[in-house]
Amino acid sequence: MSSKYQVVIGLEVHVQLLTDTKIFCGCSTKFGAVPNSQSCPVCLGLPGALPVLNRKVVEFAIRAGLATNCQIAQRSVFARKNYFYPDLPKGYQISQFELPICLGGHLDIEAEGGTKRIGITRIHMEEDAGKLVHVDIPGVGDDSCVDLNRACTPLLEIVSEPDMRSPDEAIAYLKKLHQIVVYLGICDGNLEEGSFRCDANVSLMPKGSAKLGTRAELKNINSFRFIKQAIEYEMERQAEILDEGGKVIQETRLFDPNAGTTRSMRGKEEAHDYRYFPDPDLVPLVVSDDWVEDVRLSLPELPEMKRQRFAKELGLSDYDTEVLTASRELADYFEASLALYPQAKIVANWVMGEVTRALNEENRAISDCPVTPKLLAALLQLIEQGTISGKIAKTVFDEMYKTGHEPARIVEEKGLLQVSDSGAIEQIIDQVLAAEAGQVAAYRSGKDKLFGFFVGQVMKASKGKANPALVNEILLKKLNG
Amino acid sequence: MKITRQEVEHVARLARLELTEQEADTFTGQLDAILAYVDTLKELNTDGIIPTAHAVPMENAFREDEVQPSIGVENALANAPARAESFFRVPKVIE
């Protein structure tokens, strides 16, 4: 893109809430049920059915508001957003408009040149629409199929200020927000299944200008990578229009992940006349200070606070604290292990190393790790006691991961006990030196670097079981003596 | 005039209502009278009064987050003009 322009980005994120039931009725929100099996007169929009608000949705909204530094509105009101679409049975979506539950928050992100504050305009509660699908059922032809299981599923819409000035800042904001809602336990964070959806408002203005340009709203983006791609494509597209003296049209554009482009959703413009009005079926929502305080006290430690604590109390590096707090589950695992084996750096290295590697290989969640904090701590104790070498410990770890057995049992069954008997080690060393007479001569004639080679050979001959400190000591004596 | 015929037609289109020429004229006149009355109401000073969102002075009607039985696929689809397996079937939507 030409460097004449500055991009301005604002984001609207829809967060699907982890409640058991829908926002206005008792139907289950479980994913993957038989189409339309989770529906009732309320979420089907049958005449006369009345919505009743799920208390938990309000609690989750307050949690999100507090975690993003918002004011929680004492009084908020639900409104009807009117439009016609086959996945919206009532002909309106129940949302909040003039009086949302949360206002005026912010998140701090790491941006180029330091920390940057991104404003959060508002957070409101609303219901999701159903799903419009195209299914290959004989006789259906071109018709669409509607599944209303998702209709009335609770969502939070979190709207940012247009404060981001590059695609990377947008991604940093989204990742931070994603981490927070998952930590709060209000969202499963699954982007592919649509639990965390993002629309991006993108516009360009001449560098140095204070007046925002006309924006396009990008929809249908379901991964962090695609969001970056979509914004970058949009920047190029708008710059080209402006360079040619044209005008950007305010419109909704759909991101096409296959082509990496955005295209106009023509014809939906008229539908933007939503004629909001307060929903007479729902009474106003009043949130007391006591309620807000109760929720505040129940908030989990958020990633930012955890990072600071790990750095301050455990002396871990920025890198370590960032990796360890990436998810609440990983941080919990680390802390549970640390409680049993209180050496922060060693535990951190194993959690970020072997544990994460093994889980990633199978794409398995930390909560599902066969090596429990108890087993990991037991393994680290065996190393500390000199029962096994650090190298053998990795073999034991893999075996624990496969079987879930105690490390001591594995060491015994597999005969992995560390050899710290100097007589036995001496014997192995003698064999190695005898077999490598040529290298020994080379070493003695000044090729010091060969020392590592001998250590490697001895360790190999002992199947990794020899005590490395003893091997070094004896080997040095034999070669130089 | 408080409302134009054009606005009436626009609102009718948003509501998917098909009006005859005569209906459009009738409703334009009726809506005009209604809006004129709203102007009369507007003369009242309502400074510092919370807008009424609901006719009953009540707040906070909640339900707990407990699953209740749904009505079942057959009941859900009983009034559907067309269906395909357990889906509602609708004409294709063009985007």
| End-to-end gap of chain B | 37 Å
The backbone outline of chain B, from C-alpha atoms, is flat
List the quaternary state of the chains: heterodimer
* Shape descriptor of chain A: elongated
Radius of gyration of chain A: 30 Å
| Secondary-structure content class of chain A | alpha+beta
Number of strands of chain A: 17
Separate helix tally of chain A: 16
Give the class of chain B from helix and strand content and strand pairing: mainly alpha
Beta content of chain A comes to 15-25%
Helix content estimate of chain B: 25-40%
H/E series of chain B: HHEHEE
Average pLDDT for all residues of chain A: 92
* Terminus-to-terminus distance of chain A: 69 Å
Low-pLDDT segments of chain B: none
The side-by-side strand order for the widest beta sheet of chain B comes to 2-3
Low-confidence stretches of chain A: none
What is the CATH T-level topology of the domain at 5-42 in chain B?
Answer: Histone, subunit A
Largest sheet of chain A: 9 strands, mixed
> CATH superfamily of the domain at 5-42 in chain B, please?
Glu-tRNAGln amidotransferase C subunit, N-terminal domain
Give the helices and strands, then pairings:
The complex is a heterodimer of chains A (481) and B (95).
Chain A: E1 5-16, H1 41-44, E2 53-54, H2 55-67, E3 71-72, E4 75-76, E5 78-82, E6 92-96, E7 102-111, E8 114-127, E9 131-133, E10 144-147, E11 154-160, H3 167-183, E12 196-206, E13 216-221, H4 224-243, E14 251-256, E15 261-264, E16 277-278, E17 285-286, H5 289-298, H6 303-314, H7 318-324, H8 328-340, H9 344-362, H10 373-384, H11 390-403, H12 407-413, H13 422-435, H14 437-444, H15 450-461, H16 468-480
Parallel strand pairs in A: 13-14
Antiparallel strand pairs in A: 1-11, 1-12, 3-7, 4-17, 5-6, 5-16, 7-8, 8-11, 9-10, 12-13, 14-15
Helix pairs in contact in A: 3-4, 6-7, 8-9, 8-10, 10-11, 13-15, 13-16, 15-16
Chain B: H1 5-14, H2 21-42, E1 62-63, H3 73-77, E2 83-84, E3 87-90
Antiparallel strand pairs in B: 2-3
